[in-house]
Amino acid sequence: MIFVTLGTQDKPFLRLIQAVEKQIKEGNIQEEEVVVQAGSTKCESEVMKIIPYMDQNTFDMYMKQANIVITHAGVGTIIQGLHMGKRMIVAPRLAKYGEHVNDHQLQIATNFAKENYILLLSDFEKLNLVLAKAKNFIPKAYKENNQNFISQLEEEIQAQLLLKN
Q1: Average pLDDT value over all residues in the chain
Q2: CA angle, residues 64, 80, 155, in degrees to nearest 5
């Protein structure tokens, strides 16, 4: 099973839903059920099971069952998946598409990808290639390093603030 989670952000992330659905219709996802926790993203699908919101127990159940997790770049979801040893494809929400207020998710996902914890999906047209890579991807075992992560995140935030000013 592939579990797609968009989080509970108040902005839609239809771009990711459409990319996954396209891969199903093109036959790049064939034998696996796809379950989507869509949050505020309003969508329907004939090829995916769409659930707007889930309680924590249901969310955890789908995370545990998933062979691959495709997710927005929410830190909580990424860390939960890493603790479970999940192969994760992380697709950052971007401000230019109205998916978030800024591009902090891109920095978060890039940092996790550099450390070989996750696979970064930056070009949604190449989801088929990332899915193929995910089948053999072995994520690096996650080790808590909160202080280093916080330092890197603070640097990224400061850099973003400087760019805006």
Answers
A1: 92
A2: 155
The size of the chain, in residues, is 165
Q: Give the pLDDT of residue 165.
A: 62
Q: For residue 68, what are the β-bridge partners?
A: 2, 87
What's the rounded Cα separation, in Å, for the pair 22 and 163? 35
In the chain, DSSP assigns E strands to 2-5, 34-37, 49-51, 68-71, 87-90, 119-120
Choose which CATH entry (3.40.190.10, 3.40.50.2000, 3.30.930.10, 3.40.605.10) describes domain 2-164. Answer: 3.40.50.2000
pLDDT classification of 128: cutoffs 50, 70, 90 = very high
Q: In what order do the strands lie in the sheet with 49-51?
A: 49-51, 34-37, 2-5, 68-71, 87-90, 119-120
What SS3 state is found at 36?
A: strand
Cα separation, 31 vs 40, whole angstroms: 27
Using pLDDT thresholds of 50, 70 and 90, give the confidence band for residue 52: very high
Reading the block at residue 42, the tokens are 């309003």
Angle at 40 between CA 35 and CA 44, to 5 degrees: 50
